[in-house]
Amino acid sequence: MTIMDWLENAEYNLGSPYPNSKLIALEQLQNAILLLGRGYSVDTNVDELISRYGSIDSIPPRDEVDITTIMDWLDEAQSNINSQDSSARMFGLKQYILANNLLGKGYSVDTNVDELLTVYGSVISIPRREEHEAQC
Hints:
Radius of gyration: 17 Å
Order of helices and strands: HHHHHHH
Number of strands: 0
Distance between the termini: 9 Å
């Protein structure tokens, strides 16, 4: 589930006639605002963060999190591809291909690659985002 999913669910719950739905919507909005305020994007997979840190309140600001994202791979690939060293260029091409593989599977650029690799072992083994989220 992403922050955007929370926002969409909150919108739905605000329109619901059930009294508890409004409380759920308020909690979803508060959690989304908290994480957005800590520098996360609406595409951030909240389930991954909660599994890593235990609770919403324990999630540190984005700039303090020591994770590798798909965007990190793309940035590093860009600098390696422009290198004079042929092995660095090859490594950059590999990073670019792996990052695009994950983007093609529906993951966002701020996806925590470290966590996916810990769970699945290799980029090839990582399922489509929908399948991954269904397993969580």
